[in-house]
Amino acid sequence: MEMDILLKYFPDLTKKQIQQFSQLKELYLHWNAQINVISRKDHDNFYERHVLHSSGIAKIMSFKPGSYILDIGTGGGFPGIPLAILFPDCQFVLVDSIGKKIKVVNEVSEALGLTNVQGVHERAEKIKGEFDFIVSRAVTAMPAFLTWTKGKIKKKSINDLPNGILYLKGGDLSEELSPVKQTYTIHDLNKIFEEDFFETKKVVHVRIKAK
């Protein structure tokens, strides 16, 4: 069973969470036939390459209840929807500039009964409000991404890590991160997940101090 890969690393899921996660593939295959949000070559590895990869953020940061999280460039809902299932007591705003993708986000959220997800069709720069964390999955190089996040981080921190960005990225990041002036930490997912897919995958935590 494909879900086994998720249960291997998240053995304490509730019955409701297991039910929600087990519905995900069928929902995405249904919507993907109409609106392309996941690569067709990933269909057979959906839980590894989309769900578990997105959930890697949860291995770095266990969001406290009441946390407010923005997912920029969410596409069809990654990493936001898996994180919203894992953290039902947190609120998630999932943003993408492509309206069709946000339609998928909202339809999937509704089918799963997720009341903590709001899908927004908008450019990231235009999103108002302040968040504890901004998450994303490799939408652009970090220096450009940082310009989209200005003024969006809360001053007061309620989580174990300082407020900021949690960014899923792969490969050698030394050149990309060299212009970044903020304090950051790179977490290697291959130390958490043993599958080959995660060999070069990382979560980058960038600390953002609110002005």
SSE map:
Elements (H helix, E strand, L loop, with lengths): L3 H6 L5 H18 L13 H15 L7 E5 L7 H7 L4 E6 L2 H14 L4 E5 L11 E5 L4 H7 L15 E7 L3 H4 L6 E5 L12 E7 L4
Parallel strand pairs: 1-2, 1-4, 2-3, 4-5
Antiparallel strand pairs: 5-7, 6-7
Helix pairs in contact: 2-5, 3-4
Describe the protein's architecture and organization.
With 211 residues, this protein is α/β, with parallel strands linked by helices. The chain has a single domain (4-207), classed as Rossmann fold. The protein has helices spanning 4-9, 15-32, 46-60, 80-86, 99-112, 142-148, 174-177; strands at 68-72, 91-96, 117-121, 133-137, 164-170, 184-188, 201-207. The chain has a seven-stranded mixed sheet with strand order 3-2-1-4-5-7-6, with helices on one face. Helix 2 (15-32) runs antiparallel to helix 5 (99-112). The chain is globular and about 45 Å long. The N and C termini lie far apart (48 Å). The relative contact order is 0.15.
The backbone outline, from C-alpha atoms, is globular
Mean residue pLDDT: 94
Count of structural domains? 1
Order the strands across the largest sheet as they lie in space.
3-2-1-4-5-7-6
User: What fold name goes in the CATH topology slot?
Assistant: Rossmann fold
Q: Give Rg in angstroms.
A: 16 Å
Outline the low-pLDDT stretches. Answer: none
- CATH H-level superfamily title: Vaccinia Virus protein VP39
Strand-residue fraction? 15-25%
CATH architecture: 3-Layer(aba) Sandwich
* Helix-strand pattern: HHHEHEHEEHEHEE
**What is the count of DSSP helices, taking H or I runs of 4+ residues?**
7
| Share of helix, binned | 25-40%
